[in-house]
Write a structure and sequence with these properties.
By secondary structure, the protein is of the alpha+beta class. 21% of the residues lie in helices and 29% in strands. It has one domain (2-6, 17-204): Nucleoside Triphosphate Pyrophosphohydrolase, CATH 3.90.79. The chain has 4 helices and 11 strands; from the N terminus they run αββββαββββαβββα. The strands form 2 sheets. Strands 1, 2, 3, 4, 5, 6, 7 and 8 form an 8-stranded mixed β-sheet that branches. Strands 9-10-11 form a 3-stranded antiparallel β-sheet.
Length: 205
């Protein structure tokens, strides 16, 4: 996709204002005020884009099944900011390298999307878009990644929001607004971040 050459010069116009995004946001209740009076913990996630078979793709991952609130969810590579991280972009890079076995190097991200608050874990997540000139040699960490999911961006830009029943995870059986790619239901904070990126990409086409 040619717009990656000038993506770094593009600007976000702030939070998406269309009715679909507002419905999505309010239904998920992901941006409500924290129940805790303490400041939220900070985290960074990476939207890693790269070419594969002539199409631009985005790396997602399915979390393993465990007792936590994000068990079995589809997520972006990322995690909590450590004291040794200089900034949240470095956090996002480090976590991507640790989880997917990539070798992202220091440098500026192409784009920073709007931060999003996640009530169940009390995290404020900052998403960063970056681009790799070729498909990385992925080596997922089996302790943190159950499955690598390679999402074509041409699929992302055509995603539609639909309420679906979750079949696994901490709230299995609940209906949530989501996207679906193959057998994977993408919901929650990941879906909101992808929705904003999808909206941005459609503006560039």
């Amino acid at each position: 996709m040619s717009y990656f050459s000038n993506l770094v010069d593009s600007k976000l116009s702030g939070k998406s204002k269309d009715s679909d995004f507002e419905y999505f946001r309010q239904k998920q209740l992901l941006l409500r005020k924290p129940k805790s009076s303490s400041p939220p913990k900070e985290a960074g996630v990476t939207l890693l884009c790269y070419p594969k078979a002539g199409l631009m793709h985005l790396a997602l991952m399915k979390r393993p099944t465990y007792s936590g609130v994000h068990s079995g969810q589809i997520s972006l590579p990322g995690g909590k900011k450590e004291d040794t991280d200089l900034n949240l972009w470095q956090t996002a890079q480090r976590e991507c390298n640790e989880e997917l076995g990539t070798q992202l190097q220091a440098g500026k991200p192409l784009l920073r999307l709007n931060s999003i608050y996640i009530p169940p874990s009390h995290f404020l997540v900052s998403p960063y878009v970056t681009h790799h000139p070729e498909r990385p040699n992925f080596k997922p960490n089996s302790r943190e990644v159950d499955q690598l999911i390679e999402l074509p961006l041409n699929e992302l830009v055509n995603f539609n929001i639909k309420e679906r029943v979750l079949t696994e995870g901490a709230i299995a059986g609940k209906r949530v607004p989501s996207f679906q790619y193959k057998e994977h239901i993408i919901w929650g904070a990941t879906a909101l971040i992808l929705y904003e990126f999808k909206t941005f990409l459609r503006q560039q086409l």
